[in-house]
Amino acid sequence: MSQTALHQLQAVGRIHSPYKEKFSVPRQPGLVTAGEARLQLLPPFDDPLTLEGITQFSHLWLLFVFHECLEQGWQPRVRPPRLGGNQKVGVFATRSPFRPNGLGLSVVRLLGVTQAADGLWLELEGVDLVDGTPIVDIKPYVPFADSLPAADGGFAPAPPATREVSFTPEAQAQLAQARAQHPTLETFLVQVLGQDPRPAYKQQAEDAREYGVHLYDYNVRWQVQAGRIQVLAIDPWQQSPDKTIEVTE
What we know:
- By secondary structure, the protein is mainly β.
- Helix content is 11%, strand content 29%.
- It is built from four helices and twelve strands.
């Protein structure tokens, strides 16, 4: 084995989340807590013995693969959103998904373990991962070692500011219809869209475009008006995918 090909990774599980595309995925874990997410363990790691003792921990580290970014490769310098999307810094000074090995690290809240006919699952909160993300390792979060309150956060010292989110009468009526299936959908949309999913360079200028994002089984259409996010409609995804505007960074 060469020095550059050190080890072949195998997925131990796969994420099932409301984020059906990269656009709108929170840029950090824990910023959105209302959406349900699950991690399904894959054979041969779906043995209950692999999770023995895990519920003693409130949070977990997930090591994952940025699988939707691998084909785009990596660059030594990138433009982090927290610097406005224009200033470049070294890739190893960021959490950019465009990395040499395409690996990411995320801390999530563990809500419980479910053993069902369709497999072994971890129930999670605060996930910032697109649906289908491969998980290559799971480790417990240990507060005394992993939490360093005096650490310097560099150019990301605090959570980003959020925008106010409102709903049109049409969107409010659709929320009421969706409440039986997704009781926390309104809170979820407020948290997700309040982060302003647009690329950083668009957040600094006037932007009257209509955007759409695939969340759960919905095409959520929205605009930015006077600095606020307004949700225009929450349509069933299969009926209106043509209205979604794809925005990439």
